Prior knowledge:
Elements: H1 2-12, E1 39-49, E2 62-68, E3 71-75, E4 86-95, E5 102-108, E6 116-123, E7 134-139, E8 152-161, E9 169-179, E10 182-191, E11 202-212, E12 225-231, E13 234-237, E14 248-257, E15 264-271, E16 279-287, E17 296-302, E18 309-318, E19 322-326, H2 335-344, E20 358-368, E21 381-387, E22 390-393, E23 404-413, E24 419-426, E25 434-442, E26 450-457, E27 464-477, H3 479-485, H4 503-531, H5 536-552, H6 557-574, H7 584-602, H8 614-641, H9 646-665, H10 668-685, H11 694-701, H12 705-711, H13 722-730
Antiparallel strand pairs: 1-4, 1-8, 2-3, 2-5, 5-6, 7-8, 9-10, 11-14, 11-18, 12-13, 12-15, 15-16, 17-18, 19-23, 20-23, 20-27, 21-22, 21-24, 24-25, 26-27
Amino acid sequence: MLDSCKLKSACNLPFIYNKKINTAGTSNADVPLADPGMYQLDITLRRGQSLAARDRGGTSDPYVKFKIGRKEVFRSKIIHKNLNPVWEEKASILLQHLREPLYIKVFDYDFGLQDDFMGSAFLDLTQLELNRPTDVTLTLKDPHYPDHDLGIILLSVVLTPKEGEYRDVTMLMRKSWKRSSKFQTQSLRLSDAHRKSHLWRGIVSITLIEGRDLKAMDSNGLSDPYVKFRLGHQKYKSKIMPKTLNPQWREQFDFHLYEERGGIIDITAWDKDAGKRDDFIGRCQVDLSALSREQTHKLELQLEEGEGHLVLLVTLTASATVSISDLSINSLEDQKEREAILKRYSPLRIFHNLKDVGFLQVKVIRAEGLMVADVTGKSDPFCVVELNNDRLLTHTVYKNLNPEWNKVFTFNIKDIHSVLEVTVYDEDRDRSADFLGKVAIPLLSIQNGEQKAYVLKNKQLTGPTKGVIYLEIDVIFNAVKASLRTLIPKEQKYIEEEHRLSKQLLLRNFIRMKRCVMVLVNAAYYVNSCFDWDSPPRSLAAFVLFLFVVWNFELYMVPLALLLLLTWNYFLMISGKDNRQHDTVVEDMLEDEEEEDDKDDKDSEKKGFINKIYAIQEVCISVQNILDEVASFGERIKNTFNWTVPFLSWLAIVALCVFTVILYFIPLRYIVLVWGINKFTKKLRSPYAIDNNELLDFLSRVPSDVQVVQYQELKPDPSHSPCKRKKNNLG
């Protein structure tokens, strides 16, 4: 069987195998086929040379897929407009055996359309030397046109036997990312010995200031530029600045630094084009290893393959904010550690490191009754714990529907309004992990030191799935720091999925916006009815109130009225007449959307008509997102006054009290004068300050009705309570 496989690889699979390090060592061609999980293949995708041109301009946008059998195990980044691309990307693959060759396919990326095939090659793994780095040159061929010259791909590979070392495995997940209609989930398995490699050791803070003299890409002699940043698997995208060659962004992004020596940040500038592929303006890089820590560096970077400069501020900050330990090692149970943490976030340390708001400890204890994901009737569950961009993982418990992890995760809190997400996956050696369930827990809703059974929800967090997970969470934070951080922009998530077109989502957002608009319409009808004297007593009362307010009106009465509304709703809440309601339409629509998601996943390989009319799709997505933003804005205002998040409502009361006092005692012209002086001198005092609106930043922390539904805690089955479980064990 082995000889036939090798013969087939040698005769029918096109590749040129150039071994630069092949003078010593033993080939594994005669080694018996290994047991599952016995080999690790480390691949470095170096570069391509003389690749085929597939675009009208005589270039291509190549990327590479690696496959074992029929399953994709790695996909490279896209190198735009280059027939001699340089990738320098690394991938690690676990192999159950060496019978299947490594299949390499190169494609030209076409935005919104089917990608063009640029050639393929095979690498016979049985010909690799064990434990020896090997440089490989692969000649690309097209089976339909074997005589065509499609260029070469250069790799470096190392094949290592791993006898029984992978029984305790953890997995670093990279969220699904979307390319037109194609979805790809990449995963990298790491042993416990290497787990520290994905605990980040610092923060790279980048402020994108401006662009200068960028290349004009549109017919009007201008561009609509935006910038993409990439550090490893972390990606950010700036906002789009319309019709300018000298954009002013003033945006800030934080990357996590996983390596002591730093890393390289890839930066690309693009011109946004509605309805077709965005134009590439240029690229540059930042080598973090060349920058000193704890210092802000101003960089003016020349764009390669294009024109113009980008101006950045880059700051490297050492930090140790996340950790994993066993349950026996518990920070808060150590009295000295607990006192140190409490002192760190005491009211006396308000102005010490404003970004360090609090401390979060999560004990992931166990799960029960999980979904069956394998044909054996079992699952191989592991847990991913996320707080904004911090992501930590437990080990995998094999062949178990009631796993016990007993792990403690600690995080530094930068925003008390963050949501802790705990997701359970089933590990699969040869493909991406299967989703088993998820919970989302707002930090402000956590009760310290209480072990709770959380019912696992579906991907949309709208309904239950099978199983519960037991967590014990503690949150310690400084309330003043948390309040001040509420008035600055939220941290962006680099793993957020791209928006997609969904008729259910579009309809849901339309209904939500309609409800907000109807509130204003009904208020207008109510006021108009007072003018029409439909109800004489009500109209008389409104008339008297109008005369009284207009005659005695002062500006301080505006925040005072809002303050009275908050107070009224608070007394309604504590008296049991809670007027907080979140329309069941939202829940129903979310469940419908989940069904549509499932259908989309099943049909993701089919090319629908929508992919051929990308311009219409993009317009629909824009409308869908605008509806969501408008509806969310109205719902957040309502939920502020409805005490949906008491911390934010109390903060609003404090702010309104301050504004009322200021407006009562200080003449309006002085207030406007101070405001104007601040606005006019702000750029002189701080040239690179990031503009923000404190009111909008505050409202961004208030959950919309959709988020309220997603964060609702489902009631667990009484049979899953910890007390009852202990009694059953005793019995």
